[in-house]
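Lab meeting tomorrow. Look over both lines:
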Amino acid sequence: MRNLNATDVPDLIRILETTGAFSDEEVGVAVELLGIVLNDHAQQDYEVAVAEVEGRVAGYVLFGPVPLTQGTFDLYWIAVDPAAQGHGVGRELMSHVEEKACARGGRLVCLETSSQGSYERTRRFYEQAGYRQESCIRDFYRPGDDRLTYVKRLTVSEES
């Protein structure tokens, strides 16, 4: 796991596009956030970790602390190269977020996803990683497309 480099962006765009999980609009937002991380060194809202397999970019995760909360983190984006899916890269990225959150006094990691059938595999992945659906806002994205919020409660040591 390593930090984001500007040279990673073309690979990450390719990954976002080839997963088939994201619309063109969603890819645009993801790329915009990568630009913020790369170009605004004063921002503290987002952090990116990049996973590699055999020296090639295999995926990434974008996450950060939620302002005005105590120990709550949002996982905003996670994407794994289709060629690397099923080999633990996604689990490694999720574990990285949880470890970083714990190290910073994190209590909760939250993420949002769609209720659409095309996100079934994604939701199953989150559930297998120990996340539980805590809320549903019906028709949030568009009629018939609900926003599902998943949460994982972290154990924070006494020393944190």
Summary: Residues 2-153 form a domain with the Aminopeptidase fold (CATH 3.40.630.30). The first helix runs from residue 9 to 18.
